[in-house]
Design a protein that fits this description.
Its EC number is 6.3.5.2. It is a single chain. This protein is 34% helix and 22% strand. The strands form five sheets. Strands 2-1-3-4-11-10-9-6-7 form a nine-stranded mixed sheet, sandwiched between helices. Strand 12, helix 8 and strand 13 form a beta-alpha-beta unit. Helix 8 packs across helix 13 and helix 10 packs antiparallel against helix 11. The radius of gyration is 26 Å and the shape is globular. The structure holds xanthosine-5'-monophosphate.
Length: 516
């Protein structure tokens, strides 16, 4: 059997990455390839199986992507999903028609006969997620039709001997409750792939690759306090021990406790060599008088690079540091179109967007991993939950959550309010329900209040709790009133200068998650 990855051919829908994630949840390694890759290129990777994904097109549309027949006739097991199901049917001599019977959203499929391999012993009728205009009306020669729905006479077919199968619905989405089982059966029972992609195997594999790449060399890793850099560093530490040095820049825009988390908890968990650069004064000076959000971002990014480069020069003066560790994730690689071997430096939205002339060789141990895998690897390596499940926090930090000029006093105020909001959300068990909850200080706004026997003239803070899958779109989280009440009471009681707490009830779009 071929021991390459399961390759998901991306026909342009947003589902291809999700399919690869689900395949990996079935403990089989999977990658996404564009549909423009030729059959030769795909087969050269010796895929253990090929999955044709959904796509936005109708197979009848002009220029609709199709598949090279050489691919489906190569003997490599193939699964077609949605659009890929129709493409597969077409390529193997079945028929696809514009029947006019569209199905979008939740639909019921009926299992036919014994259900074959993919649908056997599933409920006779069960819900699935559909999204199609065309329908397969005739399965390929020799294949058994195993499922049907009102709008899709052929909603599933398979030919276990020739090792191809397909479903009209989307097994990868949560709205298809038996979908994961169907994928698992294709991978294990039709394609005969053994489930070997486990967290332990990922760690062992990455450690071996890092050792291979770095040899006896030395590496530097910038820590941000976030999940990706922490897990990347922990993996490299596992591989090369004290030939790794981590650099943590305290730019003074961090939240309460974040520096300790890195200096104490991360170091305790990994034993890593850490250099902390205290650059708080430098950032404050550079930001003095600046109120424009883009200007702030630019200054913070520029200063960060300067400080980091100085730290690198200091290290290089002491030893031959040739490698730089980056926490690039698989979705960054796919989205920037990089195949295996291309070095894409993660720069989007990242304070650590490093210049190109760095004269380092990149080590990217998370390049093949999705975020959920990165978190599991982190736990496997013994990192604290607080780091592994940390919510996203922007590189420019509290600097873009103070509306107005950034000063030391304002940072202290915002840090105190933010700490209270985080404490109360954690105490209420809501951390996993929200994507993130920025607290924003409207430093240039004042409002009148009354506290004790006196009037106050303080600043409002805004709570911005959001729910999201990927931060591209978001909805405001409906937090329980009693939690909001506790946060508001504590902030106004405990944080001098803040006499009002407001709740942001704007979705994204139109509002971004951050205020600046
Ligand atoms: P927006 O505000 O654009 O944020 O809806 C989307 C996600 O990106 C984070 N964010 C940033 N991250 N540098 C970063 O590293 C930035 O300049 C930046 N701006 C926004 C934000 O916290 C959210 O998760």
């Amino acid at each position: 059997m071929a021991d390459g990855p399961v390759l998901v051919v991306d026909f342009g829908a947003q589902y291809a990455q999700l399919i690869a994630r689900r395949v990996r949840e079935a403990q089989v390694y999977s990658e996404v390839v564009p549909h423009t890759a030729g059959a030769g290129e795909i087969l050269a990777r010796k895929p253990a199986a090929i999955i044709l994904s959904g796509g936005p097109s109708s197979v009848y549309a002009e220029g609709a992507p199709s598949v090279d027949p050489a691919l489906v006739e190569s003997g490599v097991p193939v699964l077609g999903i949605c659009y890929g199901f129709q493409v597969l049917a077409g390529a193997l001599g079945g028929a696809v028609e514009h029947t006019g019977a569209r199905e979008y959203g939740r639909t019921e499929v009926k299992v036919l006969g014994e259900g074959g391999v993919l649908h056997r012993e599933l409920p006779g009728r069960h819900p699935v997620w559909m999204s199609h205009g065309d329908s397969v009306t005739k399965a390929p020669e020799g294949a058994t039709v195993t499922a049907t729905s009102e709008g899709a006479p052929v909603a599933g077919f398979e030919h276990p001997e020739r090792r191809f199968a397909g479903v009209q619905y989307h097994p990868e989405v949560a709205h298809s409750p038996h979908g994961q089982e169907v994928l698992r059966r294709f991978l294990h029972d039709i394609a005969g792939i053994r489930p070997q992609w486990t967290t332990a195997s990922i760690v062992a594999d990455q450690v071996a690759r890092i050792r291979d790449q770095v040899g006896e060399g030395r590496a530097i890793c910038g820590l941000s306090g976030g999940v990706d850099s922490a897990v990347a560093a922990a993996l490299v530490q596992q591989a090369i021990g004290d030939r790794l040095t981590c650099v943590f820049v305290d730019h003074g825009l961090l939240r309460a406790g974040e520096r300790t988390q890195v200096e104490r908890d991360f170091v305790a968990a990994t034993g890593v060599n850490l250099v902390t650069v205290d650059a708080r004064e430098r950032f404050l000076t550079a930001l003095a008088g600046v109120t424009d959000p883009e200007e702030k971002r630019k200054i913070i990014g520029r200063e960060f690079i300067r400080v980091f480069e100085q730290a690198e020069r200091d290290l290089k003066a002491k030893g031959d540091y040739r490698f730089l560790v980056q926490g690039t994730l698989y979705p960054d690689v796919v989205e920037s179109g990089g195949g295996a071997g291309t070095a894409n430096i993660k720069s989007h939205h990242n304070v650590g967007g490093l210049p190109e002339d760095l004269r380092f060789e990149l080590v990217e141990p998370l390049r093949l991993l999705f975020k959920d895998e990165v978190r599991r690897v982190g736990l496997e390596l013994g990192l604290p939950e607080t780091i592994v499940h940390r919510q996203p926090f922007p590189g420019p930090g509290l600097g873009i959550r103070i509306i107005g000029e950034v000063t030391a006093d304002r940072l202290a105020t915002l840090r105190a309010a933010d700490a209270i909001a985080r404490e109360e959300l954690t105490a209420a068990g809501l951390d996993r329900d929200i994507w993130q909850c920025p607290v924003v200080l409207l430093a240039d706004v004042r409002s009148v209040g009354v506290q004790g026997d006196g009037r106050t003239y303080g600043h409002p803070v805004v709570l911005r709790p959001v729910s999201s899958e990927d931060a591209m779109t978001a909805d405001w989280t409906r937090l329980p009133y009693d939690v909001l009440e506790r946060i508001s009471t504590r902030i106004t009681n405990e944080v001098a200068d803040v006499n009002r707490v407001a709740l942001d009830v704007t979705s994204k779009p139109p509002g971004t998650i951050e205020w600046e």
